[in-house]
Amino acid sequence: SQELEQSPQSLIVQEGKNLTINCTSSKTLYGLYWYKQKYGEGLIFLMMLQKGGEEKSHEKITAKLDEKKQQSSLHITASQPSHAGIYLCGAVNTLIQGAQKLVFGQGTRLTINP
Amino acid sequence: GAGVSQSPRYKVAKRGQDVALRCDPISGHVSLFWYQQALGQGPEFLTYFQNEAQLDKSGLPSDRFFAERPEGSVSTLKIQRTQQEDSAVYLCASSLGRVGGRAGYEQYFGPGTRLTVT
User: Fold this and answer.
1) Which of A74, A82, A85, B93 has the fewest beta carbons under 10 Å from its own?
2) What single string gives the DSSP state of each residue in chain A?
3) Interface-testing mutation among A6, A100, A106, with chain B (most B C-beta atoms within 10 A)
4) Measured between alpha carbons, how far is B67 from B57 in angstroms, rounded to an integer?
5) Quick check: A24 and A15 in contact, CB under 8 A?
6) How many CB atoms lie within 10 A of CB B46?
7) Interface contact flag, B33 A48, Cβ < 8 Å
8) Closest chain B residue to A100 measured between Cα atoms?
9) pLDDT by residue (tens digit) across B3-58?
10) What's the distance, Cα to Cα, between the start and end of chain A in Å?
11) Residues of chain A contacting B93 with CB distance shorter than 8 Å
């Protein structure tokens, strides 16, 4: 069974449009990470959310955590070509002596059309 | 400061060969993780170190996989008698962990090693 579901799996938007990517966990969330990945590269840390209702923003990207619903959303405002890539959410379902073991979704592939 | 580095970036191995993948975490980071990422999928947890202690190896797929971090900094993931299903990108991540009263859990990833077993 899928512990962490991302939707949509792929997304094509026109440059300048807003978009939202969702991440839903079937287990209790102790935290939620968002990363961006380009093909052949590692994961670029975007944001980490740890408290219910927490919302963080960086440049044009905003992420929110709804602990009760075990969900997080990533919202991009006025998308740009530089936003293209694969967005991954990583859920913290288990704590290992002060560290956080991440379970990842399958990713959302974002394409920005000029 | 330098980020997490991994070497080699690409490795082609013939089935049955042993391989060793290296990870240099961010200096001072206590926690080190290895993940395996199959094509088109999210990373999957393999193992975790806190300093030199391997506290969780529940994700290692078989006893052909072995990881070590003998001095609490550089880590090596070794795969013996490689099989085609081992082909994947192997990602290393580090985090500050809990150092004294300070906790930093953000995991920073390296660029990965793409392993192809032929």
Assistant:
1) A82
2) --SEEEE-SEEEEETT--EEEEEEESS--SEEEEEEE-TTS-EEEEEEE-STT-EEEETTEEEEEETTTTEEEEEESS--GGG-EEEEEEEEEEEETTEEEEEE---EEEEEE-
3) A100
4) 9
5) no
6) 21
7) no
8) B105
9) 999 999 999 999 999 999 999 999 999 999 999 999 989 999 999 999 999 999 99
10) 37
11) 43
Nearest CA in chain B to A89: B42
Beta-carbon separation of A48 and B105 below 8 A = yes
Q: Which residue has the tokens 């799996």?
A: A9
Amino acid at B62: S
pLDDT, tens digit, 9 for 90 and up, residues A21-79:
999 999 888 889 999 998 778 899 999 998 778 899 988 999 999 888 889 999 999 99
* B4: its two tokens: 């997490």
Q: Is B110 in the A-facing interface, judged by CB distances under 8 Å?
A: yes
**Residue partners of A82: CB distance under 8 A and separation at least 6:** none
Token reading at B111: 């660029």
Residue whose pair of structure tokens reads 């550089």 in the numeric block = B74
